[in-house]
Write a structure and sequence with these properties.
Length: 472
């Protein structure tokens, strides 16, 4: 075991938090090179091990904030040690080194909780940049003496996203796992499921939560302006460039860049984006100066990028770079248990926005919302409730307050076909008669339990719908 503990020189601030770094590599030459490269940072304690079993013991001895780990080692492999590191302390930043780059290995490692990887041979400056970035994040977002395992008071994804269904709980768990470590994430989901909301939640859970969150709609960028908007430009680079201008990458420095609709990016532009992601560096249009950027990337799409890559419609190398860690957001039809939560949230939101005192919805509204398939997902639900709140005249929104197409449950998106599905009137009648029987025929009590007036109950019972059969 090699140990290196640099003394803080006279130029170093005595208030700097000491960062413990563990380097694990069975190749002594590589380990020495890594040690020398990262020991130049102020107030770091670098310890080196050539054996993964020994390194596991050292975790408990020195409690490293950062581990530089060789992925392929004899005996206890780097992947197995990674599991133990994440189990010991999920907040540990693990940077992987590998001489045999395999996409499946890298993906699996990053999914387990590693935050970055470098392929051997690597540039010393690149390694130093990555490690220094991690050190800065630790010092700025985890003060000396803080306990990384004490997460009891921290905010979770639930603060910014609504859901208690198993599908959403799984998404929240996934976000908690990757938020401290990710460098790039791909969010895949249908339109209207809340991709940007998920991206913002990931940013707020990450160590760069105090940094900027910059949005880039790739579908809206004109191809000829892509480089200048993303990377910036210098004065005189082209007609109209009257002064230097920072691009979105620089605007997101120290924070997160959200690349929405990444699947719409034209092929010629994908190579330029890939280079920026690989090098973590950009050049403004018209400049030869290379600018290193400390930016986390979240990309989102509703398209199947893997299929597009197979069809040569999307660069395979860019896909694998973005998809090292993936989050799949469920469509609303797969999380129907969240409908009441979402309904209540949107009613409160638009009741306040429109200056109304809307306290909820009628029972038949709940029936209406439950039987719709929601092809537009949460966005469609929000728009429908906003419409209902806008036109509602009472304290509760009712079916007649919703758009006509939703009221009629028309089109191919119904949960069941209209020939077999009961109408709203049929379901109202069934519910009313069931409650009336439970109340021993007391219409006043039944109306109260249904949340409707006695006159409305009389109308439902009077206008008894004809029940349709499946063969009708």
């Amino acid at each position: 075991m090699l140990v290196y503990s640099p003394e803080m020189d006279s130029k170093s601030s005595p208030m700097l938090q000491l960062i413990n770094i563990l380097v694990v590599d069975d190749n002594p030459g590589v380990a020495a090179l890594v040690q020398e490269a990262i020991s130049a940072a102020p107030a770091v304690n670098v310890q080196v091990s050539h054996d993964a079993v020994e390194a596991e013991k050292m975790l408990h001895e020195i409690s490293p904030e950062i581990v530089v780990l060789d992925l392929i080692m004899p005996g206890l492999t780097g992947m197995e040690l990674l599991d133990k590191i994440i189990q010991w302390n999920p907040a540990t930043s693990v940077v992987l080194l590998t001489g045999e780059y395999r996409v499946d290995y890298a993906v699996a490692a990053l999914q387990k909780g590693a935050c970055d990887y470098l392929t051997k041979p690597f540039e010393v400056e690149t390694l130093q940049l990555r490690i220094n970035t991690l050190i800065d994040e630790i010092r700025h977002h985890q003060p000396s003496g803080a306990n990384p395992e004490d997460e009891s008071g921290s905010d979770g994804p639930e603060k910014w996203m609504i859901g208690k269904s198993p599908a959403m709980v799984a998404v929240f768990d996934r976000m908690r796992q990757i938020a401290p470590h990710f460098r790039s994430v791909l969010i895949h989901a249908e339109t209207g499921t809340g991709k940007e909301l998920a991206a913002r939640a990931l940013h707020r859970l990450s160590p760069v939560s105090q940094g900027p969150f910059v949005v880039c709609n790739c579908a809206a960028i004109v191809e000829t302006l892509f480089e200048s908007q993303l990377f910036g430009y210098v004065k005189g680079a082209f007609t109209g460039a009257q002064k230097d201008h920072a691009g979105l990458f620089e605007e997101a420095e120290g924070g997160t860049l959200f690349l929405d609709e990444i699947g719409e990016l034209p092929l010629p532009l994908q190579g330029k984006l890939l280079r920026a992601l690989q090098e973590r560096a950009i050049q403004r249009v018209g400049s030869h100066v290379v600018r290193h950027v400390n930016v986390r990337i979240i990309a989102a799409t509703n398209r199947d990028l893997a299929a597009m890559a197979a069809a040569n419609q999307f660069r395979e190398d860019l896909y694998y770079r973005l998809a090292m860690v993936k989050i799949q957001l469920p469509k609303l039809a797969d999380r129907r248990g969240d409908l009441p939560l979402l309904e209540r949230h949107f009613i409160q939101k638009y009741s306040e926005q429109f200056g109304k005192n809307i306290t909820g919805s009628t029972r038949r509204v709940k029936v209406l919302l439950e039987r719709h398939d929601w092809p537009g997902n949460v966005r469609e639900l929000e728009n429908a409730i906003a419409h209902a709140c806008m036109v509602a005249g009472g304290e509760k929104i009712d079916v007649q307050d919703f758009p006509e197409d939703l009221r009629n449950d028309s089109g191919r998106h119904a949960v069941r076909s209209r020939e077999l599905a009961p109408t709203i009137a049929e379901m109202e009648y069934r519910q009313a008669t069931m409650i009336l029987q439970q109340c021993d025929g007391n219409k006043q009590q039944a109306a109260q339990r249904l949340g409707i007036s006695r006159n409305t109950l009389y109308r439902i019972l009077k206008e008894r719908p004809m029940t349709r059969s499946a063969t009708a």
